[in-house]
Amino acid sequence: MFQHVTQLNEYYRSRQGRHVAKWLRQHASHFWSAAPNACNAVIGYGAPLLRADDMPPRTMFLPARFGGEQWPVKGAARIVLTNSHALPILNVQMDRILLIHALEFDSDPGHLLDECWRVLDGSGRIMVMVPNRTGLWARAERTPFGHGRPFSRRQLRDLLTNHGFTPRTTGTLLFMPPVELGIVLRFGAQIERIGRTWSPGVGGVLFVEAEKMLYAPSGQTQRQRVGGRLKAGALATATRPTSARQS
Q1: What would the mean pLDDT of 97-103 be, rounded to a whole number?
Q2: Contact, 84 vs 77, CB < 8 A?
Q3: Fewest CB atoms within 10 A around its CB: which of 40, 52, 206, 238?
Q4: Buried b (16+ CB within 10 A) or exposed e, 180-216
Q5: Angle 152-46-178 (CA atoms, 0-180°, nearest 5)?
Q6: Domain 5-231 is in which class?
C-alpha cells in the first residue's frame, strides 16, 4: 500500500516511475500561472512533477497521513505538512491548485474540494489527477495508481460540480501498460500518441481541469451564521485580490 511518502518517493525513483513523472509533468506544465506574483500549489504528493527552479515557485501541501519529506533537497523548503481539510491558507489566495495522489486517498474528498474552493482566487483553476476507473493502471498494485479510489469521468466531473467548480477539460494520460519492460518504456512517446487518438478510455490517469464558480454553494461557505443559528445552503461569492495578476 502506498500509505507513506517514502513509498511514493521510491516508486518515482524507479525506471517506470521516472517515465510516469515525465508524462504527468509535461501535461501539467501548461496549467501553472506564469504571472510574477502567482500563487501555484500542489496538494498531495507532487514532488516528481515539480522542479526546484520553477518560476514562480510552487508550494507542495503534503497531507500529514503521508508523513514528512524534505523538498527541494537543496535550498529553502517549499513543502508544508498539513491537514488537507484545514489548509493553512487565507481565503481567495491561490491562482492554481493541482491535486495528485490526494483525492483518491482522502476519506472525504468533497471536504478537500471545499477547501480548494475556499482558498482559490475568483479566477483560479484546479486540476485533479486521479486513477482512471476504466484504465489498466487502476489494477496495477505495484504503482500508486493501483491504490485508493479510482474515478470514472462522470464521477469526477459530478464531484467537482457539486463542490463549486465548472469542469472545462477532461482527458486521460498514461497509455503505456503498467509494466517495466524496456521496450514499453523506450516507445512510451509513441504509445502515448496512439493511445490519445485511438483508445482514450484506457489511459491510466484521469484528469479534469476546472474553474471556480464565483456563485456556488461550497463547503464551509454553505453554512453561514444567521441569528445565532447555522443556515445551510447560503450562497457565497469570491472576489479577486487587487494585487493579483492573471497569467
Answers
A1: 97
A2: no
A3: 52
A4: eeeeebeebeebbeebeeeebebbbbbbbbbbbbeeb
A5: 55
A6: alpha beta
Domain boundaries, the chain: 5-231
**Spatial distance between the Cα atoms of 64 and 164, rounded to a whole number of angstroms:** 25
From residue 98, how far is each of 186, 199, 231, 232, 236 by CA, in Å?
28, 25, 31, 28, 23
**pLDDT tens digits, one per residue of 106-129:** 999 999 999 999 999 999 999 999
Contact criterion met (CB below 8 Å) for 162 and 119: no
Q: What is the pTM of this model?
A: 0.83
**Cα-atom radius of gyration of the chain, to the nearest Å?**
18
Element (DSSP H or E) covering residue 198: helix 188-198
Look at 136 and 96; give whichever has higher pLDDT. 96
